């Protein structure tokens, strides 16, 4: 039968000063009968009171312990009821605060570099959080628990030499209890408790309860991570299958933009804020952003990073995927191209095909976002590799289709050259003869205008014949082919393919140094249209005369405005002036801009 400590206390307080005992007669000689009152001596009574007091105290301790154990069970139930890791971390902090009776509680997740990747707090007023600004980074006393994952219990935080104080606006805190959370043999993070209720200090029992809660939290976190890994693996596998199916489809426009498709799928599954695809430059000295999706993507197209001093360059060279919690985690190496994003965790993945590395894919989250896990790295790397192989398969199939079309293209080109051009040319000669016979007049002017139109038509047909003779995406050799290749490269950024027309003997009359500048100017001009013009079409005219080369680029966009970048235009002007040429910009009607770059060739 349970003993009530209050009843014991009342009994001990003196409700009965004597104990009536049935005593044998031989113990009380000279008395009638054997029934007599026996009074305890003072010393044995004092010892009995002490024993009863200890019994009362122990009973109260047992009841208090039972209450706290029930609280621990309730806290355990709170944190094992959800498999979503962000929700679970907040529940752990709230459960610890309620169990121990602390005013404030927090859970800090340790990043790869030893700093705090996440800091989930409970009990802190929202106004104080906004006033403080940035969350703790793992310095001072918080960093001490990271460096040495052993419990820390303090009556006053300021008494510890490792304490680094509080930022402005931070509420006052005195008592402190910190306990590590382990997931298997890995220290996942730490539980921080401050301000024991009623101004007291944390006890050894508080520490033991927090350690018990941290052990349960470690198991719950492991289960949540396993669940998240399984869910994420399913998402990556689904994305890989979708990439392969869509790239090999002959009926979708996505098959013609494989890198965009890979970037968009990666961003969605990785929950990244920015994804870029970098490909090696022609000279192999750096990597250039060819595709960007997400925050600040428009400003990243064409940006280059060094091959020998960047995270992307390291991954491209070694073929090994890489993950970092912050850009500063790899000292001495430039971060990935990030545009206007405050970069936090990053995945850098090689686009590894069947025989070579085609490029690098980077997935970045904003600063303060959850770090990528080792499972994220493995699954994302597998997705990138499978996507690269799918691109190779799509390109191989497209190559077969191009080979099948080559004979037809050659036949069409021959017909245009041998029949159409000759007939148009003959018609032009006939009209010119008629105009000569008519003499001056409006009719003659109209006929001569038609002759000029026919000459332009012949020029356009010759350009079409040249394009028909070029194998799509074949390795260019002549200047014409290289200019067409530039237009094709920028088409994905523009959203359309610009029209390109040639006049004159480009491949034979343009010096090599002028040709290189011409290619760079065309790429920069088209890239500027993609970034700023919001154009729906563009036209490129390249005219080679015996002594001068002229490049005209027209678009139907919004025209020149205050936001137009002047640095790129200054570079184009320098490329013209080094050859004694000029650069002019002229507004077009009703909209758009004409860029004219002209240099002498002699």
Automatic annotation (TrEMBL):
UniProt-listed Pfam families: GAF_2 (PF13185), HATPase_c (PF02518), HisKA_3 (PF07730)
Keywords tagged on the record: Cytoplasm, Iron, Kinase, Magnesium, Metal-binding, Phosphoprotein, Transferase, Two-component regulatory system
Translocase keyword on record: no
SMART domains attached to this UniProt entry: GAF, HATPase_c
One GO location term (cellular component): membrane
One of the protein's GO biological processes: detection of hypoxia
Coiled coil: none
Source species, domain of life: Bacteria
Domain (Histidine kinase/HSP90-like ATPase): residue spans on this chain: 513-602
Cofactor names: Mg(2+); heme
Gene3D superfamilies per the UniProt record, alphabetical: 1.20.5.1930, 3.30.450.40, Histidine kinase-like ATPase, C-terminal domain (3.30.565.10)
Single GO MF annotation: ATP binding
Annotated GAF domain residues: 84-231, 254-401
Cited InterPro entries: GAF (IPR003018), GAF-like_dom_sf (IPR029016), HATPase_C_sf (IPR036890), HATPase_dom (IPR003594), Sensor_HK_TwoCompSys (IPR050482), Sig_transdc_His_kin_sub3_dim/P (IPR011712)
Alphabetical list of PANTHER family matching this protein: NITRATE/NITRITE SENSOR PROTEIN NARX-RELATED, OXYGEN SENSOR HISTIDINE KINASE RESPONSE REGULATOR DOST
Name the record gives this protein: GAF domain-containing protein
Record organism: Pseudonocardia bannensis
């Amino acid at each position: 039968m349970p003993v009530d400590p209050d009843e014991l206390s009342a009994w001990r307080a003196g409700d009965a000063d004597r104990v009536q005992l049935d005593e044998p007669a031989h113990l009380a000689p000279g008395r009638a009968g054997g029934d007599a009152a026996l009074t305890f001596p003072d010393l044995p009574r004092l010892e009995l009171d002490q024993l009863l007091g200890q019994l009362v105290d122990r009973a109260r301790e047992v009841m208090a312990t039972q209450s706290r154990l029930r609280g621990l069970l309730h806290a355990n139930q709170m944190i094992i009821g959800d498999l979503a890791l962000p929700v679970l971390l907040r529940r752990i902090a709230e459960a610890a605060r309620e169990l121990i009776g602390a005013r404030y509680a927090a859970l800090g997740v340790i990043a790869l570099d030893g700093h705090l990747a996440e800091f989930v707090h409970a009990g802190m007023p929202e106004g104080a959080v906004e006033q403080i600004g940035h969350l703790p980074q793992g310095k001072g006393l918080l960093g001490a628990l990271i460096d040495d994952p052993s419990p820390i219990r303090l009556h006053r935080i300021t008494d510890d030499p490792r304490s680094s104080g509080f930022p402005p606006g931070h509420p006052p805190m005195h008592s402190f209890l910190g306990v590590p959370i382990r997931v298997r043999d890995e220290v996942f993070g730490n539980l921080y408790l401050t301000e024991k209720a009623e101004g007291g200090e944390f006890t050894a029992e508080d520490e033991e309860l927090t350690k018990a809660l941290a052990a349960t939290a470690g198991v719950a976190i492991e289960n949540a991570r396993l669940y998240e890994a399984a869910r994420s693996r399913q998402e990556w596998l689904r994305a890989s299958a979708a990439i392969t199916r869509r790239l090999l489809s002959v009926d979708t426009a996505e098959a013609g933009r494989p890198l965009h498709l890979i970037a968009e799928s990666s961003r969605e599954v990785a929950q990244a804020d920015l994804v870029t695809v970098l490909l090696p430059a022609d000279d192999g000295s750096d990597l250039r952003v060819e595709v960007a999706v997400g925050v600040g993507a428009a400003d990243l197209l064409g940006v280059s990073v060094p091959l020998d001093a960047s995270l992307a360059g390291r991954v491209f060279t070694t073929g090994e995927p890489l993950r970092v919690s912050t850009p500063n985690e790899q000292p001495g190496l430039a971060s990935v191209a990030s545009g206007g994003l405050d970069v936090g965790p990053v995945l850098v993945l090689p686009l590894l095909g069947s025989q070579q590395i085609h490029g690098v894919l980077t997935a970045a989250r904003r600063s303060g976002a959850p770090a990528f896990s080792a499972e994220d790295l493995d699954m994302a790397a597998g997705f990138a590799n499978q996507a690269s192989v799918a691109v190779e398969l799509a390109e191989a199939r497209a190559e077969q289709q191009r080979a099948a079309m080559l004979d037809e293209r050659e036949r069409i080109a021959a017909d245009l050259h041998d029949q159409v051009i000759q007939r148009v040319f003959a018609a032009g000669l006939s009209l010119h003869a008629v105009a000569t016979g008519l003499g001056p007049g409006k009719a003659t002017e109209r006929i001569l205008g038609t002759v000029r139109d026919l000459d332009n038509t012949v020029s356009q047909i010759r350009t079409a014949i040249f394009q028909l003779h070029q194998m799509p995406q074949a390795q260019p050799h002549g200047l014409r082919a290289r200019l067409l290749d530039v237009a094709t490269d920028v088409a994905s950024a523009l959203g359309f393919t610009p029209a390109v027309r040639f006049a004159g003997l480009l491949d034979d009359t343009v010096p090599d140094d002028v040709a290189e500048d011409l290619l760079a100017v065309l790429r920069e001009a088209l890239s500027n249209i993609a970034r700023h013009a919001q154009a729906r079409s563009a036209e490129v005219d390249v005219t080679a005369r015996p002594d001068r080369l002229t490049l005209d680029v027209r678009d139907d966009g919004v025209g020149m405005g205050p936001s137009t970048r002047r640095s790129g235009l200054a570079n184009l002007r320098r490329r013209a002036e080094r050859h004694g040429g000029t650069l002019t910009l002229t507004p077009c009607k009703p909209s758009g801009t004409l860029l004219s770059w002209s240099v002498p060739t002699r």
